[in-house]
Amino acid sequence: MGVPDIRHLLGQELAVTLGDLTTTLEVVDWAGLRADSEALAARARGLGQDEINALYQGARDPVAEIVEYFLFEYAERVEDGDWLPFGLLGIGCGPESYTEMTNDGALVFDLAAEAAVLWVRDDEVTPVGHLEDLPITRD
What we know:
Elements: E1 14-18, E2 21-27, H1 30-44, H2 49-58, H3 62-71, H4 75-79, E3 83-89, E4 105-110, E5 116-121, E6 124-127, E7 136-138
Antiparallel strand pairs: 1-2, 1-7, 2-3, 3-4, 4-5, 5-6
């Protein structure tokens, strides 16, 4: 089983129920975010530290924000290609920043387990089935 096509969910106001929690779901284009992050890093190459600081103050790096605020110590699983983030929980749709102080975690595809969906929340990882099993509704 490959990674499900989520393009039809991008930009939609969605909610999902996970156990006893019903929360907002923002589906993200991880490949697009990675490309933006890599382009920002390329612009920083060869710059001095002050110029790099100025560049990053004026630009967002959504990948770094998501890793820091949603994936925590599991970032290595994403970097190694084992996990593919696709959903951010408990934030508004299309936020200006992913540095929300509170959120309900992230959903990732576990590529080592036939794209099963994992719910990453704080220091817990909970398997929640496959995408087609999730009760996703329009919010």
